[in-house]
């Protein structure tokens, strides 16, 4: 099958440091190549891929030192190149939210659009009602709830290569881990409170975006003086196995409708159980008492820390292999691609589609 993967340009594919969507695009693309498909990746020139690379920008936007740059212009230029070459592919798989909708209406039936973010934002519903003919993929069932009416083709949970991280059935660290972004919805303050209450060291490997710097300096930085807390900063893939694999558990104390939560399966790949809040996709990812514990309060989280010896870390890794490998993810996408190739409905005139959706 001839497949185009269209990646966001904000981070490299895969990212050097933080970046979930681009990491998934990388693993999916390489695994599809391994499965024998002809894959073309549209991305920035610093991508590392086994597919044919169409470089549409010299480097990823976030790491570009140029001060004056346009994220929108870069993505529009990429989409025009995809548009020019669209007939070369059986399926066009977009990972850029809805940005391509106005440009590919005549071939929407052979596109697939994976939505990687939260969908409860103002204005989103109107867009998906206006363009109902684009088949969409959710990354968890819970993610769909704000757009229950949309044209959902399927749900595909994220997956990562089985050999990316080795299992760590006997961790050396004796600490709790927090990995992700420092932002209010990720609740690093909760992670610190849980560590303090349980008397267990906490290591925090986290990115601080420009938009979250005030929150970090005002709310989180004062909490880092505690001797139990070590702030590591942002880390890349090469450091994740050691960081996660030697932790007693990953703390995932979120306070928002998490679409998936890639860090949870990264921890599970390292045999590390997850203590996560009952929010968003968490109940779809964590198997209670097997790969971790699902909690709804700091007190429950502290109790879960005490119950960690009940978790068999070999079963945590087995859960990852059974449900969240890159090959499982890619195979699920191939099923959706084949469905698009078999059934690519004629596109109704947009007023008809728009009125039908209202």
UniProtKB/TrEMBL annotation:
Q: Which residues form the Glycosyltransferase subfamily 4-like N-terminal domain?
A: 18-130
* SUPFAM superfamilies found in the cross-reference section: UDP-Glycosyltransferase/glycogen phosphorylase (SSF53756)
The UniProt entry, under InterPro entries, shows: Glyco_trans_1, Glyco_trans_4-like_N
Q: Where is the Glycosyl transferase family domain?
A: 174-308
Q: Organism's domain of life?
A: Bacteria
The protein depicted here goes by the name Glycosyltransferase family 4 protein
Source organism of the structure: Frateuria flava
Biological classification of the source: Bacteria, Pseudomonadati, Pseudomonadota, Gammaproteobacteria, Lysobacterales
């Amino acid at each position: 099958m001839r497949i185009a993967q269209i990646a966001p340009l904000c981070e490299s594919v895969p990212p050097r440091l933080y970046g979930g969507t681009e990491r998934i695009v990388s693993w999916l693309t390489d695994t599809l190549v391994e499965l024998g498909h002809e894959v073309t990746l549209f991305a920035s020139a610093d991508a590392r891929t086994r597919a044919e690379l169409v470089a549409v920008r010299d480097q990823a936007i976030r790491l570009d030192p140029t001060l004056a740059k346009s994220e929108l212009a870069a993505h529009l230029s990429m989409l025009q190149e995809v548009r020019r070459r669209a007939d070369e592919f059986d399926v066009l798989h977009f990972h850029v939210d809805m940005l391509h909708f106005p440009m590919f209406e005549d071939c929407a039936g052979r596109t697939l659009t994976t939505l990687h973010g939260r969908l409860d934002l103002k204005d989103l519903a109107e867009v998906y009602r206006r363009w109902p003919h684009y088949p969409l993929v959710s990354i968890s069932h819970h993610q769909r709830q704000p757009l229950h009416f949309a044209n959902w083709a399927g749900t595909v949970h994220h997956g990562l290569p089985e050999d990316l991280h080795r299992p760590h059935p006997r961790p050396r660290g004796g600490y709790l881990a927090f990995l992700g972004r420092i932002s209010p919805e990720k609740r690093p303050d909760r992670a610190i409170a849980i560590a303090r209450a349980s008397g267990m060291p906490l290591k925090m490997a986290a990115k601080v975006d420009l938009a979250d710097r005030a929150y970090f300096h005002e709310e989180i930085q004062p909490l880092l003086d505690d001797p139990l807390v070590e702030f590591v900063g942002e880390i890349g893939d090469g450091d994740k196995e050691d960081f996660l694999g030697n932790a007693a558990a990953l703390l995932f104390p979120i306070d928002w409708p998490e679409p998936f939560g890639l860090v949870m399966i990264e921890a599970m790949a390292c045999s590390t159980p997850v203590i996560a809040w009952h929010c968003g996709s968490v109940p779809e990812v964590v198997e209670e008492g097997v790969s971790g514990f699902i909690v709804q309060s700091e007190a429950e989280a502290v109790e879960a820390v005490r119950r960690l010896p009940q978790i068999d870390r070999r079963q945590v890794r087995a859960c990852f292999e059974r449900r969240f490998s890159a090959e499982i993810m890619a195979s699920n996408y191939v099923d959706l691609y084949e469905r698009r190739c078999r059934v690519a409905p004629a596109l109704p005139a947009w007023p008809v589609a728009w009125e039908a959706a209202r």
